[in-house]
Amino acid sequence: MIHPTRTNLLQLKERRRAITGSVRILKARRQALIRELIASSHPFLQSRREIRRDYGEALDGLHLSLGHEGRESIESIAGVSQREVALEIESKNLMGVKYRDVSVGETVVRRPSERNYDYTATTPHLEESIHLFEKTVETLLQLAAFENKLKRLGDEIVRLTRRTRVLEERVLPRMQQSIKTIAQYLGERERESYFRLKRFKDRRTARAQEST
Predict the structure, then answer these.
(1) Which residues are within 8 A (CB) of 169 and not within 5 positions of it... i.e. 6 or more apart?
(2) At 118, which CATH number?
(3) I need a labelling partner for 187 at 20 to 30 A (CA). Which of 59, 68, 83, 202 fits?
(4) At what angle do helices 71-81 and 6-69 cross, to 10 degrees?
(5) Would residue 209 count as lying in a domain?
(6) Domain residues for 83?
(7) Is residue 1 in a domain?
(8) 207 located within any domain
(9) Does residue 69 belong to any structural domain of this protein?
(10) Considering Cα of 108, then 97, then 43, then 129, what sign does the dihedral take?
(11) Looking at residue 91, what DSSP letter applies?
(12) CA 14, 16, 22 angle in degrees (round to 5)?
């Protein structure tokens, strides 16, 4: 229980103003992060749609190629055309939210002449399938960057929401009740002091009249 003094009342009111200001700042930051989350979600969802489309078409082309080329031939082509892809991971900060951005040093999608085999001896189905698989990998890498960013933004939005609710639903109501209780107590004390002073004055006036 806070001691009901005028000093404590003023301090409580000052703390209430500070917390109210903090709530406004938290809500503004949360709203800004939500806008960024929505803006970042569009390319994320677009990338997911592209992956489903390209991967499905790549599998269809691969199944057709297996019938024309044969499994051994395709496995041989896969062995000679594989390569390492350089990735760059950069730490970024968005309004206090830290996340990692993944970028590819070079394009994953190659021209047929860059795949280390004689593409003139293969079928168009296989070439289109390889192209779509490489495109899917490239989109997946882009998606990885979006996923990390969206997860960090989502976690921060949840944290801000919880903190704001605690301040609005617990801290501020308790503080408001304490202010009300202390203000009532001080008001009663002031009224009591006023009536005591009034009775004292009335008695002095009565004694002064009796002595005259």
Answers:
(1) none
(2) 1.10.287.3240
(3) 202
(4) 130
(5) no
(6) 6-200
(7) no
(8) no
(9) yes
(10) positive
(11) E
(12) 105
Question: Which residues are CB-contacts of 6 (< 8 A; sequence separation ≥ 6)?
Answer: 186
Helical axes 172-211 vs 6-69, angle rounded to 10° = 170
b (16+ CB within 10 A) / e for 157-186 = beebeeebeebeeeebeebeebbeebeeee
CA distance 10 to 16: 10
The pLDDT, as a whole number, for residue 46 is: 78
Q: Consecutive 10-residue runs of the chain (212 residues): their mean pLDDT?
A: 81 92 94 90 80 90 85 85 80 84 79 82 86 88 80 93 95 92 85 76 70 64
What is the count of structural domains for the chain? 1
Phi-psi region of 9 (alpha: psi -120 to 50; beta: other; left: phi over 0): alpha
Q: Identify the DSSP state of 117.
A: S
Nearest to 80 by CA among 104, 125, 107, 114: 114
CA distance 7 to 161: 33
Decide if 96 contacts 32 (C-beta within 8 A). Answer: no
Tell me the CA end-to-end span of the chain in Å, nearest whole number.
Answer: 52
pTM (global) more than 0.85: no
Beta strands (DSSP E) in the chain are 87-94, 97-104
Task: Give the position of tokens 């350089």.
Answer: 86
Query: CB of 43 within 8 A of CB of 156?
Result: no
* Alpha-carbon 163 to chain mean position: 13
Query: Measured between alpha carbons, how far is 26 from 23 in angstroms, rounded to an integer?
Result: 5
